[in-house]
Design a protein that fits this description.
about 40% strand; alpha+beta; single chain; 2 helices; about 140 residues
Length: about 140
């Protein structure tokens, strides 16, 4: 018996069949995980509806207007959008929900928001569409 034989008995010689299967299975899991990650990135970066606040005006103690741009991925998409007005103490003093459909490309809209008292800011909460629960 040579000095290397006890080590070979204890730790094995080369890769076993089991080791090859572990490497193959790990590779398959890695490819599936990478495919899923790429799909999530693509899906989240191409929403059906997007919106952006361009500006707002506080017209009076009971009215504010917001200029918003809504972009739909497809003219058949029906988006539900929400604009919110807040007072100086950050409490919500008015909201306006509206629908947008049949739009091709960016559509600029002016939205009136009735308020219970004077608003100091207006925000575009965002738009949702079927299959898109998070407002954008």
């Amino acid at each position: 018996m040579t000095p290397q034989d006890p080590l070979a008995e204890r730790y094995g010689r080369g890769r076993s069949q089991r080791g090859r299967w572990v490497v193959v299975a790990s590779g398959i899991v890695g490819v599936v995980a990478l495919t899923w990650l790429l799909w999530v990135i693509w899906f989240e970066s191409t929403p059906a509806a997007q919106s952006q606040l361009q500006g707002y005006d506080v017209v009076s103690g009971e009215l504010a207007t917001a200029q918003v741009t809504v972009t739909l991925a497809d003219p058949d998409v029906e988006a539900s959008c929400l604009v919110r007005a807040s007072a100086a103490d950050s409490s919500v003093v008015g909201e306006r929900s509206f629908q947008v459909t049949g739009v091709e490309g960016p559509q600029r809209l002016e939205v009136e928001v009735r308020t219970e008292r004077e608003a100091t800011s207006v925000e575009m909460v965002g738009c949702t569409a079927p299959g898109q629960s998070r407002p954008r």
